[in-house]
């Protein structure tokens, strides 16, 4: 399913200053405080790696071999077994969070455009993760990876994120499958992938999410929805233009046509929900009419998105 527009001027995005003004930055810090309270006491246990190394919690032992650190020998076990064993400890790793933002042409629809909402969400999620000392990377995509910021750490790096999002290049068509296969090839460190998109992908959004799953990433879908997409203000004879391909079609819009369109739009939404449920991929629908900070607050209280 494709979003469309009557032959008309494009929706104008907000200026960069309007997107990330001083009030936006103040709100980010408030959200980071809420996030710390929400996950306090759980983060270390939930994010512990299965790897062993120089951590602090005993994981296992193995027979001593020449060259092992003599200080790691388990002398209490030696006293019982009269055999030398080396202690192995659990190693805790910081979480890798990838914020993946759809910048295809369909995201430029709306007043304000869905892309503005997506950029604010992406910035807020990045800041919350940076404040939690996670590794954070930002990627934009359309039918390919359009731009990316390698892993950052520390909340002071949010200004690098904001600069990237301010100047983010927009793409044309959506091909989540091709873009996410490229993403997997570019990122070797596995982690949580927050996909922020309207999921208008004629080639099947499922292939993109599956590419992440098969690549051993942990996708979470943040589905941006605009109720106006299902209720277009169109009547009579119009020329519809596919925002992403430029394809045009003359249509006589009647009540029956609008009804069939609403039904198709509803089926698309149910398809997304069914796929996420079958694959056990967390899915959150975010209406662009909702305040961006309320949306992030809801995600934090919901849990399971950033961990």
Task: Walk me through the topology.
Blueprint (H helix, E strand, L loop, with lengths): L3 E3 L9 H4 L2 H18 L3 H4 L1 E6 L3 E7 L11 H7 L3 E8 L3 E7 L11 H18 L3 E7 L3 E8 L5 H9 L9 H11 L5 E6 L7 H10 L3 E8 L10 E7 L5 E6 L1 H25 L3 E5 L4 H11 L5
Parallel strand pairs: 5-6, 5-8, 8-9, 9-12
Antiparallel strand pairs: 1-10, 2-4, 3-4, 6-7, 10-11
Helix pairs in contact: 2-5, 2-10, 5-6, 5-10, 7-8
Give start-end ranges of low-pLDDT stretches. 6-11, 40-52
In total, the number of domains comes to: 2
| CATH H level, superfamily name of the largest domain | von Willebrand factor, type A domain
Oligomer: single chain
Corresponding CATH architecture of the largest domain: 3-Layer(aba) Sandwich
Mean pLDDT: 84
